[in-house]
Amino acid sequence: MRKHFDRLGEQGWGRPDSDAGHRVSREVHRRFLRRFVPRGARVLEIGAGADRFTTELAARGCRVVVTDPSSARLAAHERRVRATPAERSVLRREVLDATDVSRYADGEFDAVLAYGGLLSTVPACAIGVLRELLRIVAPDGIVLASVVSLLGSWRHHPPGIDGRAETGERRYRWSDVVALVDEAGGELVDGSASNWASAGDPGPLAHVAADRERWRRFLEHEIAACAEPGARDGGTYILFAARRR
Fold it and tell me: Which residues are in the Methyltransferase type domain (predicted)?
């Protein structure tokens, strides 16, 4: 996995907002973060890439330990962030295999941010990984994570009907997320799809995005729809917030 991300460098899951669909997904992730990460929190950001959400956390006054499995991506992160005000919020950068967070103490962080489908990439030990992430947040802290959606992936990429990517990643239903959090000893706080209507034909969405007011209204409706229990299986990712039980 580390070699794979080293090759990707500044590319990968945290792609630029190259089209309206990606912009929607990023905004859903961003607003979910704002709901659950307190201002001034001490945050462990897992799989930060070249700057997925460090800048957003910095804007909230958070103190961030930035991690990634790839040293190349951490170097890209430093190049991108160090010349911005967000750099003042970075406590340190560390290469981290998220299947082993034993270096961190119980309750060391107010929040852990594990966006990007981390738990989908470790299908054999996802319960143990989430249990450890819950261990390193404070008793009233929060783990924010996303997993690749099984049904949403079918919807967005119809040929992918076997529920498993070539890399062996696990794709989840919302009911699987509920079970995962419970088995890891956590309490599920809330969830959301990463996209809903925007996971369809990109043509009409591009026209909406060209009009600022229409785009603003669309985002409000889209984000509300993503949070509906019946829609959580319909996006390419499932987001969830969990805390210690």
Answer: 44-144
168 Ramachandran zone, left/alpha/beta (phi>0; psi -120 to 50)? left
pLDDT tens string 76-106: 999 999 999 999 999 999 999 999 999 999 9
pTM over 0.85, yes/no: yes
The structural domains of the chain, with segments of one domain joined by +, span 2-244
Phi, psi of 33 (to 5 degrees): -60, -45
